[in-house]
Amino acid sequence: MSTPTREVRVRFAPSPTGPLHIGGVRTALYNYLFARRNGGKMILRIEDTDSQRFVPGAEDYINEALAWLGIEIDEGVREGGPYGPYKQSERRDIYREHVKMLLDNGKAYIAFDTPAELEAARAAHPNFQYDASTRGSMRNSLSLPPEEVKRLLDEGAQYVVRFRIEPGRDVAVDDLIRGRVTIKSDILDDKVLYKSADDLPTYHLANIVDDHLMKVSHVIRGEEWLPSAPLHVLLYEAFGWADTMPAFVHLPLLLKPDGKGKLSKRDGDRLGFPVFPLLWTDPKSGDTSAGYRENGYLPEAVVNFLALLGWNPGDDTEIMDMVTLISKFSLEHCSKAGAKFAFDKAKWFNHTYLQALPDDKLADMFVPVLKAHGVDAGAFAPDYIAKAVSLVKSRINFVNDLWDNARFFFVAPESYDPKAVKKRWNAQMSDIMRELAALLQSAPDFGSAALEPAVMQWIADKGYHLGNVMNAFRLTVVGECKGPHMFDITDLLGRDETIRRILRGADTIKPVDEPAV
Ligand code: GLU
């Protein structure tokens, strides 16, 4: 028996209850990679049926985060598409109609129990569960006479619609990563599918109805949804849709960096890394949570890092851009085991992607950082900034790190590292530096290739200490004894600026007196 190949249609279905967690971003990414790999469609569906937990701004945040990362949506709230609306709160009629289908075919029933009554039932029976064994003693359309049900409905009593789960069944979920998972239907309760109070379905009903109507072929989501899957299988059956049920794919959990337990926001705070793609400001408290974008990560690095948290390409390849990831992605290489959130690796990816950027692009990214530090970036030629960046970029993990490493190309030192002064500056050093300034003034060629041998020759002729003189030279120009090759620095700074800095150092740096012994 051969099944006709189905068009691949996947959906990312976040609930706008706060900022999208990095685990949710990985789910979106895997859906996207799978869709693109298989020539399918990627749907973004906003699951906003829980009005209590709705957070303003969360939907925009989701859109912005996905756009930043290059995860493109084919059908969604903004994109439109043939199966819209793509926001659940705009699909009430559809859900109402489907709730009625289940009521009509006896797969669901109406329950009038008040919160107080449910509370009492829970108090009276320790492991109370609303199911086949208890529903007869509760107030619902299966236990009450039909006239009573009608009367309550006519009166406008609040009710919920519950799924009627038959006990004694083995429910199998076929998961493309985990294989077949079977549970007994007895452990499931008669889940609420719809609440009259807000005329909205619950997650389970809306999710299944929409996956069916939107012709979703694969449900790819986090492992935390695995416990809901048997219920979802039963719902497909109850609707008579078992034949077109999507394949399930439950992605492994993201674990704390040490592998002990699920990654949480607190781990990020404690260990100093973001667990959100973008900076998030809580609309109520004003509290902010760090984001990868604002912390200086390139979207390509975040995508690459996340792709490898639960999947591998089947070999040791680590650096993969989106196009490569799409070409290599397969569910066969997704793992069951939780993926440790190896955060240092994220830095390494960022470092690696930064190295691969053209210098002028990196320079453009550095300009706002320069401005933030009060530098009039416009006063420097774009080539100058790009050259400065090229000399220090091997030392950076983030664009912001360029400031610490390249600031001296933009501002002359105003103070000098005291440790270096103590170590390198003696009573003769100011004179030696003035001599050096004179040498540089008269050098016929100030370019690095010519200047370096000239300075070396002068040090040798004078019998000066090479390390001390070169470090003192560096101290006057950079302010400390670090940075790229000295003559690359002078080459870029130019003759006048270099000499000005040497003379200023010669005038202002004083040897530190050794304490008398
Ligand atoms: N709305 C659910 C969420 O917030 C969707 C889960 C699913 O993909 O079925 O993740």
Question: What attributes does this structure have?
Answer:
Glutamyl-tRNA Synthetase, domain 3, binds glutamic acid, alpha/beta, Arc Repressor Mutant, subunit A, 517 residues, elongated, four-stranded antiparallel sheet, three-stranded parallel sheet
Q: Describe it for me?
A:
The chain is of the alpha/beta class and 517 residues long. Among the domains are: 161 residues, Glutamyl-tRNA Synthetase, domain 3 (Alpha-Beta Complex); 43 residues, no CATH class; 106 residues, Arc Repressor Mutant, subunit A. It contains 20 helices and 15 strands. The strands form six sheets. It has a four-stranded antiparallel sheet. A hairpin with a 4-residue loop joins β8 and β9. α17 crosses α19. The radius of gyration is 33 Å and the shape is elongated. The chain starts with 8 loop residues before the first strand and ends in a 9-residue tail after the last helix. The mean pLDDT is 96. It binds glutamic acid. Glutamic acid binds next to α6.
What's the layout of helices and strands?
Blueprint: E1 9-12, H1 22-37, E2 41-44, H2 58-69, E3 75-76, H3 92-104, E4 108-111, H4 115-124, H5 146-155, E5 160-163, E6 170-175, E7 179-184, E8 192-195, E9 200-201, H6 203-213, E10 218-222, H7 229-239, E11 247-251, E12 254-255, H8 265-271, E13 280-281, E14 288-289, H9 299-307, H10 322-328, E15 339-340, H11 343-356, H12 359-372, H13 382-392, H14 401-406, H15 418-424, H16 429-442, H17 448-462, H18 466-478, H19 486-493, H20 495-508
Parallel strand pairs: 1-2, 2-3, 10-11, 12-15
Antiparallel strand pairs: 4-5, 5-8, 6-7, 8-9, 13-14
Residues 13-15, 47, 203, 207, 221, 225 line the site of glutamic acid.
